[in-house]
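Q: I'm teaching a short session on how sequence maps to structure, and I want students to see two examples side by side rather than one. Could you give me a first protein with its sequence written out and its structure tokens following it? Keep the formatting plain so it prints cleanly on a handout.
A: Of course. Example one:
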Amino acid sequence: MGSDNTRWVRPAGSVADALWDTAIGDDVDGWVHTGLLTARLAAGDTRSVDLSAHEAVVVPLAGGVRLTVTHDGVSQEIVLAGRESVWSGPTDVAYVPRGASLTLTADAPAEVAICLAADSATEPGPQPSHVAAQDVPVELRGAGIASRQVRNFGVPGVLDARRMIACEVITPAGNWSSWPPHKHDNERPGVETELEEIYYFRTRSTDPRGSDPMGYQRVYAAGERPIDVLAEVRSGDVVLVPHGWHGPAIAAPDADLYYLNVMAGPGPERAWLICDDPAHSWVRESWSSTPIDPRLT
């Protein structure tokens, strides 16, 4: 267990309230730019979200939801068809800008995540939008036991947003993701952007006998800013990455690993620029001669 787990790891249920199963925001000491809400909704349930200081991306985890969005005096309904589960493939998502009124309604049981990014800009920004599931770029990243699938629904060039960057990753049982370890905690134009990052996990046993599917997440120091996280993670757990090298995210040999990433930062450019830990960056060179895990192809 890492010495900073208590500060940066939130086990499932530990940050729940009357409306949300997960509620991550700036009430976390040292956390500024990102937030996350998740909820399990019964048919007919509604949730309203305060977007006075944040933009949002609504991500159905299971089932679909209906959104009522009012922005600049104009109301519209956005229907997210969703999916059976996070293991079923990409989902459609919706972007909602800061200052909008947002209400979610579930017409059938559903699970939903709301990714949040702080936005203090006063000039006009992006309008509400809907990204269809078939328009979500799906990337196969890495190779061999570092193979994973990345669903890039909320990255620049796919989703128009002010600060928000978001995606989700599927790592098959036994594989390592977020590998090689990398960081994005300094503003270096064209090289690296400063981004906080949230990891929200789901796990799934690959065998019907499995009753405790789990994975692991590592975050460690880069330069003179100490951080030491080594967490055993299960469905609903959250790991916060304020800075430092992060990776690997490890899927146990008998459990697939899913995570939703939410990123945002203070820099002038909305970009996802990373640098690898030099001790491990050579790993990328081996990928050209190593096939992708066939479970992802």
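Q: Perfect. Now a second example for contrast.
A: Example two:
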Amino acid sequence: MPHTLSDFYAGCRSRAVILALEEDRYTGDITTLATIRQGQQGCAVIKAKAEGVLAGASVAEEVFKACDPGLTIVFLRNDGDHIRMGDTVLEVSGGIASLLMAERTVLNFMQRMSGIATRTNTYVNKISHTGTAILDTRKTVPGLRYFDKEAVRIGGGKNHRFGLFDMILIKDNHIDACGGVGNAVREAVAYRKNNGLDVQIETEVRSLEELAEALPCGPDIVLLDNLSVDMLQQAVAFARAEAPSVKLEASGNVGLHNVAAIAETGVDYISIGELTHSVTALDLSMTIAFV
């Protein structure tokens, strides 16, 4: 078991890389074994076939090294760089068999992560004139959450909670089961105190009435769920007057068409599931030259 949160995150990353390679190779790359001469050397380049924000270069290095520690990797672009069609991202040289075994796994990680970073960056740029931050959600591919959330950070967004363990986030079902948002927040505040937890408490509210009930109970963040822009403006004005230290997050039905208007209401955060649950991969390719 991991001893620290850093150990946990490192484990998520390393286990996913190992599993990705195992599910691709299993008993071996029989095509490469059948066609490539043992010890044959070469080099490969990864190039962008579309414009976007690069993410996953550091993961690519981990995949290549897991396949063959003897591979030599040269980065020509780094995570977070804006890349254009035709740009060479990295060069890697060594055994041809190792390059071929790593190719698809490397591209799968880089294309997905670059797609997330690119989409996140588009949202971030849309609201750059405000003080609002773009957040991700837990709507990630099972087993790939570490990479999905890292890609959001690379694209300029911020991470919401990683999982169920690092924030108390009271949603509609918790509220209904607890008999109301006030009861739910009070129970959460007591639980945090009694267990000595150093975590934030966030609660969803679905109306201005629930907002008024929640604020006096001591949440750190209030999630304004599926409210119209007009209602968000009212909610922000009310919350700033009644509990100015409470952060406000907007969520639900957010798109590029309305994200700026939502940010302009003055909320602190906007969480967007689309960043990770509906990602379009950024097109990258790997070409190998033989020596």
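Q: What should students look for in example two?
A: Point them to this: The first helix runs from residue 5 to 25. Also worth mentioning: The radius of gyration is 23 Å.
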